[in-house]
Amino acid sequence: MDVDSQKVEKLRNGIIPIYEPGLENIVAENSKLDNLHFTDDADEAVAFADIIFIAVGTPPDEDGSADLKYVLAVARDVGRRMEVRKTVITKSTVPVGTSDKVKAAIVEELTTRNKDLIIDVASNPEFLKEGAAVNDFMKPDRIVVGTDSDHVRKQMTELYAPFNRNSDRMIFMDIRAAELTKYAANAMLATKISFMNEIAILAEELGADVEQVRHGIGSDPRIGYQFIYPGIGYGGSCFPKDVQALQRTGGEHGLPMRILDAVEQVNAKQKLHLVNRVNQHYQGDIKGKTFALWGLSFKPKTDDMREAPSRQIMEALWEAGAKVQAYDPEAMEEVERIYGQHPGLLLTGTRDAALTGADALIICTEWQHFRAANFDALAETLSDKVIFDGRNMYEPSRVEAAGLTYYAIGRGESLRRSLLDSTSTKG
Ligand SMILES: NC(=O)c1ccc[n+]([C@@H]2O[C@H](COP(=O)([O-])OP(=O)(O)OC[C@H]3O[C@@H](n4cnc5c(N)ncnc54)[C@H](O)[C@@H]3O)[C@@H](O)[C@H]2O)c1
Ligand SMILES: O=c1ccn([C@@H]2O[C@H](COP(=O)(O)OP(=O)(O)O[C@H]3O[C@H](CO)[C@@H](O)[C@H](O)[C@H]3O)[C@@H](O)[C@H]2O)c(=O)[nH]1
């Protein structure tokens, strides 16, 4: 059930409104098997379901806290319509205490209607990653359920049984602990990224290669290889808003979240790090330059542009009078929706078309498709023979062997050579 009727209509016709690998087949198969129905009619949805998941958006409010208006609207929708006992599960990422608010909103509606029905409200946060959503859902590393009801415990165990066969991944806990678990998980992952980005900047200054450091520390299982890739800052619809919401929650309880303050500050700076390198390379004058830009979405395998670092990078380049020729395998439509016919932006149909007439290349998203690059051809095409790589896609020596200047993130040695190179080119 979605209030966006156009989305519902598309889904009914087998059209997936977002790009998510593997989703189309699952929707088609289960629609065909009559396992899956789409509706914009709340009456129909509430009457049909024993268990109702609330999975609507929780965008940041003006003060950074999570805006609960959509979540509470669903709660009221349920309270206005339920005629028998229901279980309502909060799947949206919501601050601690929200399940109590959801229950209160439902009970208020029931009271208005003089109904005395049992309502169970529980928390079941979602941990999937965009671009890997299907696999993360089918093979979860944990299924967190916050509840104080044996009835819900039984329902959830039965519901998740098909995804829980190999080993028991159900983790039952208190509702408040479940709500906090979601924020703590995202905040920890964002912290790993900002930590690594800070180390990367230090590595640049010290002439060390952060990719070697990453291997060196990731091999310690206490640290692990995941989420220590330096880059141009974390984006997307979750980390930025969830870090902010947790900061806000701490603040409300007189507990400033000092680590998260730093995580956010480092991320904000990191998003402009590559632009600073561009300016440094061109000694502050990029007016009239044309930059090819590969990758626009906030990460590969999605068309999601929410908080994508590419946006800030493009906007900074336009501000300085440069033009952008951009290509992304999936996000072009979304970029067009956001920027319309921007005079500084040309969207090209292929990766190579973005290079035509460009002075330099900037890489914002590490789509697999960009890995196999022909550096000799790039050196021929790019008039200033320079690549600014925000995702450390290539081995610096290979790029430089083609006569290109290569800036990556935290690769001090290559940076040192690049800076020497650009100084000598400019005499
Ligand atoms: N996107 C992710 O990868 C991800 C992963 C884990 C958790 N989450 C959390 O899940 C929640 C949803 O995220 P999203 O990215 O899917 O948001 P979204 O904004 O893309 O989608 C929310 C949908 O809810 C619909 N909606 C709004 N009000 C409604 C109502 N009253 N009844 C029915 N539908 C309604 C909207 O029309 C929209 O289609 C957020 O709390 C987010 O933090 C998202
Ligand atoms: O080593 C890394 C890993 C990620 N990122 C960046 O971090 C952001 C988020 O990436 P990722 O976590 O893979 O994508 P999301 O789909 O936003 O998923 C996160 O946010 C979801 C919504 O809450 C959670 O469910 C997931 O568990 C959590 O990983 C992106 O900009 C990535 O480029 C890095 O810079 N370095």
Q: Give the name of the CATH superfamily of the largest domain.
A: NAD(P)-binding Rossmann-like Domain
**DSSP helix fraction:** 40-55%
Bound molecules: nicotinamide-adenine-dinucleotide, uridine-5'-diphosphate-glucose
* CATH top level class name of the largest domain: Alpha Beta
Overall strand count: 11
Descriptive account of the structure:
With 427 residues, the chain is α/β, with parallel strands linked by helices. It folds into two domains: 41-173, NAD(P)-binding Rossmann-like Domain (Rossmann fold); 184-427, Rossmann fold (3-Layer(aba) Sandwich). Helix content is 45%, strand content 11%. The chain has 17 helices and eleven strands. It has helices spanning 5-12, 23-32, 42-48, 69-81, 98-112, 133-138, 150-160, 175-206, 210-218, 239-252, 258-270, 273-281, 309-319, 332-339, 375-381, 396-401, 412-425; strands spanning 51-54, 86-90, 119-123, 143-146, 170-173, 290-294, 323-327, 345-347, 360-363, 386-389, 405-407. The strands form three sheets. Strands 8-7-6-9-10-11 form a six-stranded parallel sheet. Strands 1-2-3 form a three-stranded parallel sheet. Strand 9 (360-363), helix 15 (375-381) and strand 10 form a beta-alpha-beta unit. The radius of gyration is 24 Å and the shape is elongated. The structure holds nicotinamide-adenine-dinucleotide (NAD) and uridine-5'-diphosphate-glucose. Nicotinamide-adenine-dinucleotide is lined by residues 1-4, 7, 55-58, 70, 73-74, 77, 92-93, 126, 128, 130, 237-238. GO terms for molecular function: NAD binding; UDP-glucose 6-dehydrogenase activity. It holds the Pfam family UDPG_MGDP_dh_C. The active site is at 238 (nucleophile). Keywords: NAD, Oxidoreductase. NAD(+) binds at residues 2, 7, 58, 93, 130, 241, 306.
